[in-house]
Amino acid sequence: MRLSALVVARNEAARLPACLATLGFADEVVVVLDRSGDASAGIARAAGAVLLEGAWALEGERRNAGIAACTGDWILEVDADERVPPELGAEIRALIARSAAAFHRVRIDNYVGERLILYGWGGSFGTTLKPILFRRGAKHWRAQRVHPGLDWTAPHGMALEGERLTAHGIRHEVDRDISDMLRRLDRYSSAKAADLLDQGDIGTLGNNVRRFVSRTFKCYVARKGYKEGGWGLLIALCAGLFPLLSHLKARLEPERHRS
Asked: Fewest beta carbons less than 10 Å away: which of 10, 61, 146, 159?
């Protein structure tokens, strides 16, 4: 079974080298650069990666372009701010040699700066388990800007989802600090506002206020964010604010976010 590692990035010259350095266990590395004007292309070429450059307005479209460029039987989809430890690489190679499933979820270890935060992620603001290991042809991203939905196809006679890889996690350098986290919330909510306007349904203020309360509670209590102290509270608040801010931007400033 041949394995392709796919990296989709935009102006990630500072973080791309460390990411690519951890993907040597793959048979092929494909790098998709979306409107990048920095040194990312040269870094990808120097690493021996297959390079695809272009301009895609929607995250789903550029990820689908990357998947189409991969030639492996299996694809591992990672981001430039993620690092795959050698133990996980070996675990992945062993798994795809025997798997009878269309995809597998992989554990994600999220870092803010140098702090590993294990608890409290959720509400579209962060996850500790992602379906990023899949057979070519099984995964299709929907046409959306941020956190696009997924459609899955299982080959005949195969299970859709297989066992989860949780023994070793991908190191995800999700935010540099609190300010970086808040800037990410601003970017994500602006992109989501544009998606809502495109869909023609931005929801209601009351429903999104309820979502703020339920998501904050779920991340802080049900997902045990309280174990992370103030960090857990901050993440829970951001997760709750994401849909509310997206709605308010679409409702109050549609001219700024309409495509």
From this structure: 159
Measured CA to CA, the distance from residue 193 to residue 237 in angstroms comes to 18
Phi, psi of 161 (to 5 degrees): -110, 135
Residue 176 contacts residue 113 (beta carbons within 8 Å): yes
> Long-range pairs for 153-159 at CB < 8 Å and ≥24 separation?
153/102, 154/101, 154/102, 155/102, 158/100, 158/101, 158/102, 159/100, 159/101, 159/102
**Per-residue buried b or exposed e for 156-171, using 16+ beta carbons within 10 Å of the residue's own CB:** eeeeeebeebeebbbb
So what's the pLDDT on residue 238? 98
pLDDT of residue 124: 87
Tell me the pLDDT tens digit for each residue of 23-69.
999 999 999 999 999 999 999 999 999 999 999 999 999 999 999 99
Long-range (24+ apart) CB contacts under 8 A made by 48-56 are 49/7, 49/20
- Token pair, residue 123, equals 């509400």
Q: How far apart are CA 42 and CA 50, in angstroms?
A: 11
Q: Which two tokens stand for residue 197?
A: 């306007």
Q: What residues contact 124, with CB distance under 8 A and at least 6 apart?
A: 147, 188, 239, 242, 243
Q: How confident is the model over 80-135, as pLDDT tens digits?
A: 999 999 999 999 999 999 999 999 999 999 999 999 999 999 988 999 999 999 99
Count of residues for the chain? 259
Strands 115-117 and 74-79: unpaired
